[in-house]
């Protein structure tokens, strides 16, 4: 990455776009503009849609003084960040948004933890949906309980419903203050009679703690006739758990499974590197073949292409830091999805499709085919020699990703092979053979029932938001760090 060719190319590009700067002395940004300066320069360099945002154009400012004058017009870094995005969801909430997933934080230590599965959490993973007939009132249902959490010690489980917090009805306008901004609260539980949700008098008091979530919630083998079906529920692509993931695959391989069901229904994504490793564990026969291709903005793409075009390709691997992968060498896989399945989860589905048969069971996925990277305020935008005066960091979208066949157009979500929706009236127990989505997969594998499952979408609650999106992690597919060797100076 740090070659003479790349440096010469970037110097040429920067000199061409900012040639009017040549007679100007370098002017540092003043202390009160350091964060804003970092935001503009980071997005100007890396943002996927840099060419589509006029205020990010390379020739927008002739010198640092001009940029400083522009930056002074924003009272908060957050306002500047949002204003520099390409039709962000914050400004286009009802459609036509282009950038639905870039965000900024004021404490990168929190961000770093969340991207590795560490967060301040009470252990209840839930989804909020609109009450039937309402556009404001919400009902929550528990999707699963994180082991070793505060919630794991309380009387609350998958499928439990709640409509209020601390005696107040949950709404689209108060859910953040009630659930996000409080370290402890009491859920007001509810019951469903088939048409409406009513409080039932039960309450559950919860307290958030710093919690590490192992993304491998369930790993087991289900025997059905002549089939030994491996089942793994995997809830986040956290790179620091890759060794445990490899061990889990070794356990499945040792039991001689004939089929494999990968449950990604609540997996909002994570590390591209981990997604590549997971796909390699599922297969194993495609080492060094292309799993996925990255497409950056024109400036970054040119840098890669002149220096090392192969670095744009993510290839199947056979080891983790020298440790051999435990690969299943499958030619077919069954993957469970919902409308909460996103990013790196979708990457696995799409990346495997050119090589093996992928049978998707559940609902359409989110439709996130773009990836991000954490940018810090330093000369290289990595954490090396980071500015000690603040802890702001950005997680902007920087690349689009496609599979080996160059397919990556699934912004409306990946369509399931067999549609099977989740209903709050019949969620079932995760990992049990009669749980609806898993049961459909098992039936498809064994041929026990008709493969096509008819669904009434009108009976499913309309999704508002889920716990992972609320936490700030959103739906992620990210690189471990920004490419180095790229120039930052405006001069």
Give a description of the structure:
With 491 residues, the chain is α+β, with helices and mostly antiparallel strands. It contains 12 helices and 26 strands. The radius of gyration is 24 Å and the shape is globular. The chain starts with a helix and ends in a 13-residue tail after the last strand.
Sum this structure up briefly:
The chain has helices at about 5-15, 35-45, 65-70, 75-85, 110-115, 175-180, 240-255, 270-280, 300-305, 345-350, 435-445, 465-470; strands spanning about 105, 120, 125-130, 140-145, 160-165, 170, 185-190, 195-205, 210, 215-225, 225-235, 260-265, 270, 290-295, 315, 320, 325, 330-335, 355-360, 370, 375, 395, 395-400, 420, 465, 475-480. With about 500 residues, the protein is an alpha+beta fold.
Summing up helix and strand content along with how strands pair, one would put the structural category as alpha+beta
Strand content: 25-35%
Portion in helices? 10-25%
N-end to C-end Cα span: 22 Å
Q: What integer value in Å does the Rg equal?
A: 24 Å
Spans where pLDDT lies below 50 across 5 or more residues: 1-26, 487-491
Note the total helix count. 12
Largest sheet: 7 strands, antiparallel
The coarse silhouette is globular
The tally of strands reads 26
Q: Residue-averaged pLDDT, rounded? A: 90
Write the layout of secondary structure elements.
Blueprint: H1 4-17, H2 34-46, H3 64-71, H4 77-83, E1 103-105, H5 108-114, E2 118-121, E3 124-130, E4 138-145, E5 161-165, E6 168-169, H6 175-180, E7 184-192, E8 197-207, E9 209-212, E10 216-224, E11 227-234, H7 242-254, E12 259-263, E13 269-271, H8 272-282, E14 290-295, H9 298-307, E15 313-315, E16 319-320, E17 323-324, E18 332-337, H10 344-352, E19 357-362, E20 370-372, E21 375-376, E22 393-395, E23 397-402, E24 418-419, H11 436-446, E25 463-466, H12 467-470, E26 476-478
Parallel strand pairs: 11-12, 12-18, 13-26, 18-19, 19-24
Antiparallel strand pairs: 1-22, 2-9, 3-4, 3-25, 4-5, 5-6, 5-7, 7-8, 10-11, 14-15, 14-23, 16-17, 20-23, 21-22
Helix pairs in contact: 1-9, 7-8, 8-10
